[in-house]
Amino acid sequence: MLVPMAKPVGLLIGRFQPYHFGHMAAIEYALKKVDHLYILVGSSQKSHESRNPFTAGERILMIRNALIDKKVDAKRYLIIPIPDAIGHAVWTAFIDQVVPKYDIVFSNNDLTIQLFREKGVQVIEPPLFKRKNYSATEVRRRIIANEDWKSLVPTSVVKVIEPIIRKGRFKGLE
Q1: Which among 19, 124, 161, 172 is placed 20 to 30 Å from 7, CA to CA?
Q2: CATH code, domain with 84
């Protein structure tokens, strides 16, 4: 009797500053190709900066709440914070120490793609979903400019970000 092969395990890395519909599309794409997905929240040590305004905990909450609202089975993913490393080659080795075995990396970041391909890991570039609007840079720009940003992120993410804005974290960030 032949035993069917299980789908591979995937790894998706992002800063999620903040989580938006483009990230959701990438996760949904990856979950169609793998049984389990490790979602790594990169630069986890950074926050309160113009490129990295949110803490790792806030970003994990954004992702988790959005996936719950989308009814994604929580057994299919694990969200792990990952800090930056001193050197790029050390960073991939650190990921291998922190993350259980994975077969595929999903990324659109050129450096991440290069580093994992050099390690011999299969890399898949998820299709970019309406990239002009769905980028964290655009969401942050709109927050600072007091323009519509809420249409770019899931409702559960709006609920995480609004209190942060009210507390003034974005004042002075450009």
Answers
A1: 19
A2: 3.40.50.620
